[in-house]
Design brief:
The chain contains nine helices and five strands, in the order αββααααααβαββα. The protein is α/β, with parallel strands linked by helices. A hairpin with a 2-residue loop joins β1 and β2. InterPro entries: CMP_dCMP_dom, Cytidine_deaminase-like.
């Protein structure tokens, strides 16, 4: 597939948004990986690594972004919230909508995220509008419909998704992944395993992958994190004298 200048500009634009999330992750003392998800070139979700704050090794940036979409999908299609409909027509900027102001499952997610991080989590109205309109046009809100929605999405991650996240991306049906730097220890999109190419059977459909977008900037954020040290890493049970390994 030939990559045009327009493709490059689009990829770099959204990767910079993902890098912003990675910077916030670093500020929170998390391993700095960020991601955003777009549909029709509009922001629909975002997330960053929350494994330390959540004491949960699965809370990678990609899972956080998926979680946001799935909870809102469930809420939109199990409730007739006039506030949501109003937001779809009256919110030109996603930063204007703070879900903490509303009593709903969405606010519960936002409250949890606010407790876990230093940033103010908000819901992009384009996500609300897209999911609501998409569900209305289909007339259903089952698994097939949300899978169809995901098939229209692109995920931008600052680092190659790990094997676990690549498996989730495949199963959830994301059509395309764009990432920054390679993940040479745990990468699931070519570095260690190639989950994206469909070689793991019918349970793991293939998806498009493009890497190396603003990779040097992604690496620089990692360098800042590792030069400072992981402040949330568990303390060793015993002190190891490193000089014995340098002989």
């Amino acid at each position: 597939m030939q990559v045009t200048q327009s493709d490059i500009n689009t990829n770099e634009f959204w990767m910079r948004e993902a890098l912003n999330m990675a910077q916030l992750s670093n500020s929170d003392g998390e391993i700095p990986v960020g991601c955003v998800i777009t549909c029709d070139n509009e922001l629909v979700s975002y997330g960053y690594n929350q494994t330390n704050a959540g004491h949960n090794g699965t809370l990678h940036a990609e899972f956080e972004a998926f979680d946001l979409i799935l909870i809102i999908w469930n809420y939109l299609h199990s409730s007739k919230d006039s506030t949501i409909s109003k937001l779809c027509t009256n919110s030109p900027n996603y930063t204007q909508f703070d879900p903490l102001h509303y009593s709903s499952p969405i606010s519960q997610v936002a409250s949890l995220r606010k407790a876990k991080s230093t940033i103010k989590w908000v819901i992009p109205p384009h996500l609300l509008c897209t999911l609501e309109q998409y569900g209305s046009s289909i007339g259903k809100c089952g698994t097939d419909q949300i899978t169809e929605f995901f098939s229209q999405c692109t995920l931008y991650a600052t680092c190659e998704p790990c094997i676990m996240c690549a498996g989730a991306i495949s199963q959830i049906g994301i059509k395309r992944v764009v990432f920054g730097c390679m993940n040479e220890r745990f990468g699931g999109c070519g570095s260690v395993y190639s989950v994206h190419n469909g070689s793991f059977g019918q349970a793991y459909p293939p998806f498009e992958v493009q890497g190396g977008i603003l990779s040097e900037e992604a690496v620089e954020i990692f360098k800042k994190f590792y030069n400072r040290g992981n402040i949330n890493a568990p303390k060793p049970h015993r002190t190891i004298k490193m000089e014995q390994y340098s002989q």
